[in-house]
TrEMBL record:
PROSITE patterns the record matches: RIESKE (PS51296), RING_HYDROXYL_ALPHA (PS00570)
Residue ranges of every copy of the Rieske domain listed in the record: 46-124
Family of the protein in this entry: Belongs to the bacterial ring-hydroxylating dioxygenase alpha subunit family.
InterPro entries (UniProt xref): AhdA1c-like_alpha_C, ARHD_Rieske_2Fe_2S, Rieske_2Fe-2S, Rieske_2Fe-2S_sf, Ring_hydroxy_dOase_asu_C_dom, Rng_hydr_dOase-A
GO molecular function, one term: iron ion binding
Keyword set includes Iron-sulfur: yes
PANTHER family, per the entry: 3-PHENYLPROPIONATE_CINNAMIC ACID DIOXYGENASE SUBUNIT ALPHA (PTHR43756:SF1), CHOLINE MONOOXYGENASE, CHLOROPLASTIC (PTHR43756)
Keywords annotated in UniProt: 2Fe-2S, Dioxygenase, Iron, Iron-sulfur, Metal-binding, NAD, Oxidoreductase
UniProt keyword Methyltransferase present: no
Name of the protein in its database record: Subunit alpha of terephthalate 1,2-dioxygenase, terminal oxygenase component
Length: 415
């Protein structure tokens, strides 16, 4: 056992086996949660904030989070994207209370300090007091009281923010391979079709592991395999960036080869006797020239970009305490979609979201883990499917990208 992580009140003992073991303590310890907010979310990471398509006009804004810090993303008068902490520089009140809108000025309800879309302080009521009495001191300088600004970079219309002024440029952080997969989906202007939000009673990392876990999909999600949408026997693999912190799990469209693997293994997930009452729910079009029908991409620490057939969405994972997290889904299509395509995307989206035919189980299985480990923080999980290394693999019966996550997590956390 190596004893590292000296800044946490309780020391994490990471098992000697390294990334093939995860001490359950990291899913429940409040001091670990605190350190994550500093070292990961306020550290050298880029965090998904919004799509540019959500803020098309000057003055448009959206409220969101980086880790558990509330943040406002805006498009300023010059068309530039900005972001700042949603915390008044006077005495800390939440400045913007709507989830989205358009405004020139953000005025705090408490004492009406007013800020522009850049986050700069523009107005302070009673600055000179009342009838010459009271008011701010002589040396009060509005330029010293802007809202806390984040660094912003966009890639293919996806907006990322960082608290760390020294974080590496976004494209370097994503790496060439991951940029390629983002470009693949955001290949032309998109428009938002809708949103979902869900709350989960588990640590955020349990959900992120689930996203990176291609091994579970055809076993846990019986809908997938029952209707032939995704089987591990289909051609596919895991692609990772050089650090291992991001990943893509990709699957090529239906093929009947190797289906026998399922029959022989007698997995409950192979069952052809069920038929959909309304098969139009799964109707779609082939739209990616590379033939990939399912691509799930994770960007450390909390973004997921999904293409499940014609269902395109970004998921934003937000920690809400050691044993709670939220998932914010943004569904989108392309601006040049015809009505039929939009209808197909909407119908197919029944697969995903909090009550989706497929993703419903992902929202529940995390809580099963959280409940199971409750009294065993000194024990560890076992992550050796597909080997013990962190590397891209041309198969999906593997946990390689989960190991990749923990590799980067440990570096950032000092464990
Ligand atoms: S706390 Fe915002 S104006 Fe006072
Ligand atoms: Fe899943």
């Amino acid at each position: 056992m190596s004893k590292l992580g000296t800044e946490t009140t309780e020391i994490i003992s990471w098992p000697e086996e390294g990334v093939t073991r995860v001490p359950y303590q990291v899913y429940m310890d409040p001091s670990v949660y605190e350190q994550e907010q500093l070292r990961i979310y306020r550290g050298p990471t880029w965090n998904f904030l919004a799509l540019e398509a959500e803020l098309p006009q000057s003055g448009d804004y959206k409220t969101t989070f980086v880790g558990d810090t509330p943040v406002v993303v805006t498009r300023d008068r010059d068309g530039e994207i900005r972001a700042f902490v949603n915390r008044c520089s006077h005495r800390g009140a939440t400045v913007c209370m709507d989830s989205c809108g358009n405004t020139k000025t953000f005025t705090c309800v408490y004492h009406a300090w007013a800020f522009d879309a850049k986050g700069d302080l523009k107005g302070v009521p009673f600055r000179s007091g009342v009838e010459g009495k009271g008011g701010m001191p002589e040396d009060f300088d509005t330029s010293k009281h802007a809202l806390h600004k984040l660094r912003i970079e966009t890639f293919c219309g996806v907006i990322f923010g960082s608290f760390d002024p020294h974080v590496m440029p976004l494209q370097e952080y994503l790496g060439e391979k991951m940029c390629g997969y983002i470009r693949r989906v955001f290949n032309r202007p998109v428009h938002v079709l809708g949103y979902n939000r869900q709350s989960m009673n588990n640590n955020w990392k349990i959900y992120f592991e689930n996203v990176k876990d291609s091994y579970h999909a055809s076993i846990l999600h019986t809908f997938f395999s029952t209707f032939g949408l995704n089987r591990l026997s289909q051609r596919g693999g895991i692609d990772m960036d050089d650090t291992g912190m991001h990943h893509v799990s990709y699957t090529y469209g239906s093929s009947n080869e190797n289906e026998d693997t399922y029959k022989q293994a007698n997995l409950r997930s192979f069952n052809s006797k069920y038929k959909l009452e309304d098969p139009t729910m799964l109707e779609g079009r082939k739209e990616f020239a590379d033939g990939i029908t399912l691509a799930i991409q994770s960007i450390f620490p909390g973004m997921v970009l999904q293409q499940i057939h014609n269902t395109l969405a970004v998921r934003q994972l937000l920690p809400k305490g050691p044993e709670k997290c939220e998932l914010h889904w943004t569904y989108f299509g392309y601006e040049d979609d015809d009505d039929q395509m939009t209808t197909m995307r909407m119908k197919q989206s029944n697969l995903v979201g909090p009550a989706g035919f497929v993703s419903l189980e992902d929202g529940g299985v995390g809580e099963l883990v959280q409940r199971g480990i409750v009294r065993d923080k000194d024990k560890s999980s076992f992550v050796e499917m597909g080997g013990k290394t962190v590397q891209s693999q041309e198969f999906r019966a593997t946990e390689t990208s989960i190991r990749g996550f923990w590799k980067r997590y440990r570096e950032l956390m000092g464990y």
